[in-house]
Amino acid sequence: MRTDLSKYDNSWYNPGPWVTRILWYIVSTVFFRTAFPFTKVKTLLLRLFGAKVGKGVMIKPYVTIKYPWFLTIGNNSWIGERAWIDNLTEVVIGDNVCLSQEAYLLTGNHNYRKPSFDLVVGKIKIEDGVWIGARATVCPGVTCFSHAVLAVGSVATADLEPYSINVGNPATKQKDRIKETPAVNGL
Q1: What is the pLDDT of residues 115-130, one digit of tens each?
Q2: Which terminus has fewer CB within 10 Å in the chain: N or C?
Q3: What CATH number does the domain located at 16-150 have?
């Protein structure tokens, strides 16, 4: 088998009306992929373009979001500088999630087994309390279960267990994320 990109055909894929995509591209270029600091304006714009965004969401500068109409973000979640949500399909981010600097949520890939290198998409779900470290990548079809951690620079190619700490490429569970109990009266 030899790859033949002249056979590539993603005509089945429809991310939305072209007018909406062009308008989003302009809005994204001005307000998201720049140093524009105002999170409330960003969350309002995301909602106007069909995203479901909870309360207390923090969106830092230089963030890329492919298609907001495929995005859900829960309450009190943070999107770090230069994070990239490449959502060709649905991405669901729960409550109290931290996507650190340059984290990458990747919902699209190609089928390298076919000569036509077909587009493949897979939903990503990031459950409550998950931390995606700086420059870490979550691949198509992955669920990061409650309070999982994906360490700096790691790549999640499969689901992450709840309360697990995952490291490497591909990421593997290294240990459990232990909840620390608060000290009582400073003890």
Answers
A1: 999 999 999 999 999 9
A2: C
A3: 2.160.10.10
